[in-house]
Amino acid sequence: YIWPSPQLDALEAVRFDQLGFTVLPSSISLFVSPCNLFVFAGANSGRSDAADWIRTAYHDMATHNSTDGTGGLDASIRFPAERTRTENIGDGFANTIGIVFQVINRYVSMADAIALGVIFAVENCGGPEIPFRGGRTDADEPNAPGVPEPQENIDSHVASFARQGFTQTEMIGLVACGHTFGGVQHSVFPDIVNVLNDPTSTEDVAHFDSTFVTFDNNIATEYISGTTQNPLVVGFNDTTNSDKRIFGSDGNATMHSFADSPKLFASTCADLFARMVDTVPTGVKLTDVITPLPLKPASVDLVLNGDILQLSGFVRLWNMTEDPSRVVHMLWDDHAQGTGNTTMGFAGTSSATHGKHSAAWYGFNDTVPHSPIGLDPATGIKSLSFVVNGKLEDQGGLGFAVQDGYMLSATSCSMGNNPLTGRVDVAVRNGVNPTRVYLEMTNHDSVGRIVITEIDIPRPPQPVAADSAYSLWSLNMSDQNVVFLTFNIGAEIDGVKYSTTNLLRLNSFAPCSQ
Ligand code: HEM
């Protein structure tokens, strides 16, 4: 895709900027590093965040009805009315939601976060990379029930997976792929698992295979060799041996093929997990598969500070590690057919997918990467391009567009503390003439979804000059019912809505002069 695209930029970041230096406030990779981590109990609990996340996504998706298009991966599992059904017994769902929702923002839904949980768990714990699409929407009410339970017979399971959109062979695959992680807990299923008295499984979890925090085909090799301890295959209660009935339902052909080939198992699971997280209600349009941009600007921000236009930001170089001999330059075009350039400063490295991918980050300011560089407001800035060790990166000649039609003015100020009030000044470039300029406050609706509330900044009756190139539009926050202290600034220019990247904080502004 072409940068900038706010939603794709955000989805790409949450997918690929996992650990180390990133501009994101939080990543969930830490919770599956190491893969036996279970943040709700000590080591040796026998449980893992990774297993909870995979099971949660399946149970959220399993309500899908492929005939009428209802249900699917839409975060309906977050509703207590759905989560407390017998088919959703256990605390793994609440645990998952408590962690994976940390990455949601206006562009990344709760359902996208659940999908990312599966992808991060599998990829970081020995499994294949799974293609990620974004754009799921979050349900506004619980879905109809539909998660299979272990006491059902095989016909019922085949019918249930068919309703979800999976054939019998795919059912065998999906159950095996899921059950390479985790196990069954005594406290939740006392009719399936006894108290274990095992110091390495203090929550009495009988595991599906011997490597229960690792993605591998042991779920199949142990089943085929007859050494499996899977409580849904060799459990003392045959009524609940659902894995035994499912795995055996094609004469073990699929499980044999998985046992014979770890590669086939991994590629099948990558496909099936992708299908699982992409099973969404009809009408939801997912993005294309998100792939990392080879070079990506991030946190690009402009502030008008008197006679100086301050430009800050970073650029991420994908698939690169630290290299002191690398030289990175940023070039820009302005509104007066002029150009400028600067050397960029190394800021750090990030990694994704258990270190499989790495990226090197550079700040726009050579000496202090987080600090801005100063430009002339009169000439402004139109677009960026970069030169990495002599190679030009400009999105095939398009450049990386920067919107300097409006920005925060450093004259914005905060006042008092209780309630915190102040004034937001927005500098609008002369001649740009936006239809509207407004603050964007992030809020949640009655079912927890992020919604953006816009508060218009009135167009001044007479232009208020900020300098020769910009005029100020101001909003006195004491005039508003100020309940939000953080916001972005939006503007509608030539029919297109723009939004600043960085979240602004009223209490970070200088005090207003009385
Ligand atoms: C007929 C279909 C299925 C049945 C009857 C079934 C049954 C179960 C049961 C009874 C548990 C124990 C839960 C607990 O003790 O908290 C469990 C755990 C689990 N299931 Fe399934 N399952 C099915 C399909 C799937 C599928 C398709 C996936 C994923 C693709 C999946 C992923 C998991 C995972 C990862 C766990 C471990 C959870 C943990 O250890 O915290 N299951 N399953």
Automatic annotation (TrEMBL):
PROSITE patterns tied to this protein: PEROXIDASE_4
InterPro entries xref list: Ccp1-like, Haem_peroxidase, Haem_peroxidase_sf, Peroxidase_I
Highest taxon, organism lineage: Eukaryota
GO BP, one annotated term: response to reactive oxygen species
GO molecular function, one term: heme binding
EC number per UniProt: 1.11.1.-
Membrane spanning residue stretches: none
Keyword Oxidoreductase in annotation: yes
Entry similarity comment: Belongs to the peroxidase family. Cytochrome c peroxidase subfamily.
Protein role: Destroys radicals which are normally produced within the cells and which are toxic to biological systems.
PANTHER family, sorted: HEME PEROXIDASE (PTHR31356:SF53), THYLAKOID LUMENAL 29 KDA PROTEIN, CHLOROPLASTIC-RELATED (PTHR31356)
Name by which UniProt lists this protein: Peroxidase
